[in-house]
Amino acid sequence: MDKNEVNSAFEILLEEIEIVFSSINQEIEAFSKTQNYKKIIPLAENATNLSNFREKVKELQKEWRNVFTSKIPEKLKKIKREKKLQKGLRTPEEDFRIPVLESLVELNGIAKVNDILKKVYEKMKDKLNSYDLKKLPNNPQKRWENAAQWSRYTMVKEGILSSDSPSGTWEITSKGKKYLEENK
Asked: In which region does residue 83 sit, left (phi positive, over 0), alpha (psi from -120 to 50) or beta (all else)?
């Protein structure tokens, strides 16, 4: 067992969380169309709690990467697990940070989501695997698009992308430009 197998487990957990999150959003959308607002409130609370839980998992994943920078000792490799982790997991959302920021700079700092995702795809198409290119269950969105949007969510929380840009639009901040220069 090495650190990558544990990281894969984190990715599986994050994927499952995203599927639940997507399902909650679809329910909210359906109740919104029927103007059944009483049903929306508890769902919105669940979505908020799930989002907070997701952030905790992401922090644990980062902590794992920091604690175990090399392979686990040889004697632990011999421990047999009953079930292997699924191969071909999606590309981690962190890998989308620089392509998203580069795309935004190329689009003059602000752009519509679809325009950004087209550029991100061009930058990452050689890195995306078959799992990334599959659609999420019960959702027309591809896994890589979902990961890119979660990456955006994290960057907004960090102040790298603007939190008050118009709906359907992403905007890089001065902090985001500095981050890009330092991490390119």
From this structure: beta
pLDDT in tens, the chain (184 residues): 345 677 778 887 888 888 788 878 878 888 888 888 888 888 889 888 988 998 898 888 888 877 765 555 555 555 444 444 455 577 888 899 999 999 999 999 999 999 999 999 999 999 998 888 988 777 788 889 988 988 998 999 899 999 998 888 999 999 999 999 999 8
Q: Which amino acid is at 57?
A: V
Cα–Cα distance, 183 to 92 (Å, whole number): 17
Q: How far is CA 91 from CA 53, 71, 138, in A?
A: 21, 21, 20
pTM: 0.66
155: tokens are 């960057």
- Here the tokens at position 161 are 């992308």
Q: Which two tokens stand for residue 85?
A: 């982790």
